[in-house]
Predict the 3D structure of the following.
Amino acid sequence: MKVRHTAIFENLRREILAGKFDSERKLPSECALARRFSVSRPTISRVMLDLKREGLVVTRPGAATVLSRFALNATGALGLIDPGSGQGNVLSTICRHIVRFAEQAGWDVIREVVEATDPVARAREIEGLAARFSSEHVSGVFIQPLEYLTDNASASNDVVTHLDLAKIPVVLLDYDIVSPPARSRYDLVAIDNLAAGLAVGHRLLASGSGKLAFLMPCGSPATVEDRCRGVACSVIKHGGVWTEKGNLLRATPENARAVSRFVRVNGPDAIVCGNDALAVRLRETLERLGLAGSIRLAGFDGLSDVAWDGYVTVRQPCEDMAAVAFHTLVSRIKNPRLPARTIVLPATVIER
């Protein structure tokens, strides 16, 4: 059973974040709150101290308790655009953890799952959600930039423009809306993709693979490019040679003709894919071509449904990423003038 003052604190925190007091800014007096919750005034004083530590109220001797500037900026739900399982489940897993952390902290979350699978249709749907969040004046938004389009950066910029016009803070998940070395002005939470690619390549080479290749469909985000660079670095570190023509397969995994030709001409015995979802699709193509047994596959994300023997992948720290993303957005709401931050978390290579 919760301690009484803790339950009252959580109740008032949720009411503050829901905007119940923002029109008048003042909270009821401690005596009025004590009567409302049928507790002693010292109990309410403890609650006020907790709200002050949370940054939600300002208390001054002899004056009414008022909402802080942060509380006034935070009187609305958080928006979350969940990319869905169409591109793999890892971001949806992170989104579920974000909802949990936010709700535990007293926030309401509007989580919208993207349904479209075609990249252009997905872009339209995501832009529509951003426009809706803007009109609903949410306090902040979590979003993964767009991918697999002719111009990912332009399309992603169209999305965040809706939020910028409404002065709604944004935290990007997984990668930036611009390509390195450029950096946008939004906070970013991601794993160290270059290091992850390096670790995957090293694991494959150390366990007997001779020639590595990387599958990267056109329009892949900077995340995948960094993973590819990491794999390339591992090859070079092991004394090998890496060329775009000989090691990089730029095709969708379903393109059997391109896959067959690349394997026949370049002879890789291991192919690293930009993520696990791509690896699953490539394996199906290799099986149709009768090549599944001769080529080892690797990927990223650590999805539990990818479990064939010898598969190398990277387990993303989904819960840690969600916690960091949530606290990053809250701190951005508290202080909109903070410089753009990039928070990079380590990931772990695993072998099935």
In short: DSSP finds 13 helices and 14 strands in the chain. The chain has a mean pLDDT of 92. The domain at 4-72 is CATH 1.10.10.10 (Arc Repressor Mutant, subunit A).
